[in-house]
Amino acid sequence: xxxSAPTPDDDAxxxxxxxxxxxxxxxxLKMTGIGRPDVYVTCALKHFSPHAADEADIAACRRWLxxxxxxxxxxxxxxxxxxxxxxxxxxxxxxxxxxxxVFHPGFVPKVVTTVDLASILEASDEDAFRRAxxxxxxxxxxxxxxxxxxxxxxxxxxxxxx
Length: 162
Known about the structure:
five-stranded mixed sheet; 162 residues
């Protein structure tokens, strides 16, 4: 999983995923049966910045991201947000229009693009948050099926909660 950039809390903790963003990912993993040890999480941008990522920021951090991908050798890279997708693919991706699109760039079997976790957390109310999180969860169901780790029992449990 490639996140666009760390939050200030992530940066302070020295971890690419903390707080409510981590809770969303953990929820999706639990509900699909994907084991947390099977998921590598990193950031496209290697430091918190108060301004939106631009092409220079992405290009400066891209070589570290490429090195991580070469070492981890993932079956699928899930890009959360436009900056993450651009860093991985080396091209712009129009989200949410291209949400769920699968790319086959050659250096990994598949790259899937989806929304940034911030877009889920910025929902206008609790119902909107649940809808956004559940839509994200459905993407993780597809990912679990692609990886061949989908747990049908957890899948029924998750879908029943929607």
